[in-house]
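hi! just following up on the protien thing from before. the input was this:
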Amino acid sequence: MTEEIIIAGFGGQGVLSMGQILCYGGVIEGKEVSWMPSYGPEMRGGTANCMVIVSDSKISSPILTKFDIVIALNQPSLDKFESAVKPGGLLIYEASTILNPPTRTDIDILPIEAANEAAKLENTKVMNMIILGSLLKKKQIITFETAIEALKKVLPERYHKLIPLNKIAMEKGMELAEKFHVTV
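and the predicted 3d structure came back as:
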């Protein structure tokens, strides 16, 4: 199993954290991982993305142009990376803020209204965890339990009190993903 993923959005949306959770989780499960962040000098509000590879075998290169999975958290990221999903791949996007949804018919598309759900949980910062939960429901790259363990490594200790909320957000994302038939 090798999953080549790009996660993209604005700085401050938890793009890099999602990638780190997947990679730490892969390490915990004894897999090979690669995490390559890319972000503008503005950080919050600027563009950010990270390429993640989680594999059962050695990774030859961290540089990718086509992906098994694209996660787009805003319209510019969807516009930029929709064409980078491999045929038969998966595109997950934040549906409550994207005005022009994807149009491809050769991939699986999973629209998740994560921003709306995060607002219902009264913490917009867990939007990324809702998306991550949706991903893990459709593609078990790492287990849910491993993702929680990885979160403990990614989240600074002073924020560990938020782990239960993040867990609830991931569970909500899994629940939302169940509504959609994805063949991957």
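The beta strands are 2-10, 32-39, 47-55, 67-72, 85-94, 108-112.
Residues 163-177 form the longest helix (15 residues).
cheers
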